[in-house]
Design a protein that fits this description.
Distance between the termini of chain B: 54 Å
Number of helices of chain B: 14
Largest interface: A-B, 46 and 46 residues
Oligomer: heterodimer
Order of helices and strands of chain A: HHHHHHHHHHHHHHHHHHHHHHHHHH
Strand content of chain A: under 5%
Structural class of chain B: alpha/beta
Number of helices of chain A: 26
Number of strands of chain A: 0
Chain lengths: 525, 376
Amino acid sequence: MSSFPALRDREDGPGAGLTLLAGGVAVAVLAPLFWVVVRAAEVGPDRALSLLTSGSTVEILGNSVALVAVVTAGSVLVGVPLAVLTTRSDLPGRRFWTVAVSLPLVVPSYIGAFAFVSAFGPTGTIAGALGVPVPTVYGFWGTALVLVLYIYPYVFLTTRAALLSFDGRLVEAARTLGDDRRTAFRRVVLPQIGPAVAAGALLVALYALSDFGTPAIMQLEVFTQAIYVEYGAFRRGFAALLSLQLVAVTLVVLAVESTIEAGDRAAYESQGGRAAARIRLGRWTGPALAFCTLVVGLALLLPLAVLGWWLVRANSYSGFAFEWSFAANSVYASSLAALACVAAALPVAYLSARSDSRLARIVERATYVGYAVPGIVVGLALVSFGIRAVPGLYQTVPLLVFAYVVRFLPVAVGVVRSSVLQVDRSLVEAARILGEPPRGAFRRVVVPLIAPGAVAGGALVFLTAMKELPATLLVSPTGFDTLVTYIWLVQDAGSYGQAAVPALVLVAVSGLSMLVILSRGRYDG
Amino acid sequence: MEWNATRRGFLAGAGSAVVAGCTGLVPANEGTDDGPVTITDFRGSGPLVESRSAPGGTAIADLPDLSGDLTVYLGGGESGLYTTLFDLFERIYPEFSVSVQPAPSSQLANTIIEEHQGGASPADVFIAVDAGSLGAVADAGAAGTLPGEVTDPVPDAFKADNWVGLAGRARAIPYNTEQFSADDIPTDVMAFAEDERFQGTMGWAPTYGAFQAFVTAMRILEGEDRTRQWLKGMLDQNVESKKNEFLISNFVAEGELGAGFANHYYSLRVQRDRQDAPLALAFTENDAGALVNVSGALPVAGTDSSDLVARFVRHLLSAEAQEFFATRTFGYPMIPGVPPVGDLPRVDELSPPDLDLSKLSDLEPTLALLREVGAL
């Protein structure tokens, strides 16, 4: 495509304005973390060194890195086959399974892990029913399993989107040229969906690093748990140091993922003319259905069953009654977070999709750091930042929304970026030839094409913000109770019965936003 | 645009109903929230509570009125119950209102310290479930002081310069009355590791926070070596590990365990549900086994409502509020006028160890010790 080099350069070369805007977003979301560095610097170098090289820190580092690796691999092994089955095979009930295997993402991991322990724990329902001891669910493998079950949908969703927009004629071409089905998959399909799988896997990896609830309930010592211990002993400096070490691990993960994703970006542009012939499952239909059933049963039905059990059986003696305004507050703050994240993601995603420059890459990667930092660290950093830099906004909804942007911006960046990558540049060139100025071409061609992606990214941020707990507790306005703060409050007091209704409302509302995300695929089912 | 949403706003509807009820615009039987607030509103219900006589101590009617707005940082645990108590205060004093920021105690302590260093905290009062969080705020200079007349009713062991205890959680020895008599239970917690009578019949919950606080207290009081020795001695006694101390109290009531280590209120919960259970509580004396941890309150430095804060905390130590903690959470009341539920000794009859409760947050050496001896 070199027929209109001049046009292309002007359309393509990201303007200084865009670079500045995207850079500003990156700086803004990194700024609060400055306070983590300040707190860490308060620890003397000798003590810092002894903390970072102590046996327990090294063990924690090992646990965390191993957990990230296992959870990421597990999520790919669950998410990719499910995406292939629901988009490319003749699996019965594909539309149903698409929704069912996406929904575990709306279940907060602290509820999921709790459900898992109540069912499979040493004194749990299953052990009680069987009357024999069951293998322990606590520790490394239990934590890894629970995390995979609740966050593999990130991989499923990104892979599914890539498979839906994938040009099936390429597979047919490969088959025509003599490749068997397996070779065609490896040589044609994998390179095309690879970047999407990697994008989902990145969100999984960083989530596994930042999650506190699951390892805490499953009793595994990882960074987040160690950071909570330090805060609990009021050693904020040590907590900050551990957070910086966690950021260092994050940077390694981001670098590794960069090397995968930096593949052929033009691969994205091949908007599918039509889908390839469906894979006939034949005698594999049964096992495939069993696999889907197992995943949905463990990741969705189990927590719902536990919530139902709470609803009818658990005690409710705490005095603080549920009010629907808590749900309204959750939806309000999460909707604003979705809007703010999409708005902030647009320049970052556009710059990174349209520029190969190192700066664009760094700006995009920088937005992921806040996602990997545990919510309590972001929350306390925003306390320090808010009370000093913007005292007028301290403990207000805008600061809470900003906390969500710091934590969840990359969720939107990833989705919007792949939408931008899929925009066929020849369409933009056509608009330019027809006399549209660059801005007009952007507005009339690019914006409509990336709008569905922006909506899906916003919905993904929405459901992620709906279940965010640690930063919400610290940063929300006084008296601004949300579903999760209420669930935390009554659950902490042992009133599980009272937690059931808000938890079910949370799952239902977030489930609706999942439908928005899934409706983006034009020819599923 | 007003961004600060307060709980008051959400409760405005309920509040106006109360006012309407008081002025006779609504029939008095319209809802339970109507009418004057009496001791019944504060008191819980159930078999352990119904026969109680009127609480001693200073009644709310004899305290200066509450008027104005307070922002309370409310730490963890039973904060839902605290909001019920605040609602009762708001019903008594229509001019008084409380905005609550609930979060885990230690996180709120860190937040107050950050706020104090960066400017001023919006909080007027900090209520925490553990003395460690209160002590951390006080150590950072982020706490104001409470006047003597507010903290006077509380024994010295349960208050410091900046904070005062509101309700206690006493370490206790639940024992099965068919297997032991009260005289069998030593008053020295260290004896449980040596006495042959406790071979193969004791239970503990080493993963449980309250148990770990007890071991932390032992470390501070007896030293690392004696604590290690005690833990090993208990393991040699074949002590049974349970998941939490409610289970321990239940197993003792059923006779599967002869005795155990648990917070006092778990046995009261068992007794509430099964009054004929052969379960009683014993307390050791002046050692870690007699530790009483407290939830407490402190004024946050820089509050411009320090008079109201003092009066508010005094209300939390009133006869009615202490009866509330005693009967609704089975907490240990902090004033001698209000006895705990279940014929337990009054707070001034306990013999807690001489220990700075805020040191209990130093948990890590305890965990290391528990792992070293194989208890975890």
